[in-house]
Design brief:
34% of the residues lie in helices and 30% in strands. The chain is α+β, with helices and mostly antiparallel strands. α1 runs antiparallel to α4.
């Protein structure tokens, strides 16, 4: 139900779910990616994106210039998937969404969706 949850609440054109596997994030689910997309399928603990999402538990959005640099053309919004118990399980990343959808409400909904996914996987 993750795909249905994300698509119905956030309406992204593309998104992905990565699960934490030791010191790296591994692609678990990709939605609407095509063969020409060059998105990473793994992020290691040495990468800044991993450090910000997993270690700092931050939600990144391209609307912030510093976050845009951290996202490095890998997406428009990214954040940690955290269970109710506080355990970090992975990352939800929106690669493509209409700019008209990028607003404070969408970022709040994104955080709620990350929590719901965390509880579902936990």
């Amino acid at each position: 139900g993750v795909q249905e949850l994300v698509t119905s609440l956030l309406r992204p054109k593309q998104f992905s779910v990565f699960m934490l596997d030791g010191d790296r994030l591994e692609l678990s689910l990709s939605y609407a990616w095509d063969k020409n997309d060059t998105y990473a399928r793994q992020f290691t603990s040495e990468q800044r994106l991993f450090q910000e999402i997993i270690a700092q538990r931050r939600v990144l959005c391209v609307a912030d210039a510093d976050d845009e640099v951290l996202l490095a053309h890998q997406g428009m919004i990214a954040g940690p998937i955290v269970s109710e118990s506080g355990q970090i399980l992975g990352m939800l990343k929106i690669e493509n969404i209409d700019y008209t959808e990028l607003n404070v409400s969408t970022l709040q909904t994104f955080s709620i969706v990350c929590a719901w996914i965390g509880n579902a996987y936990y």
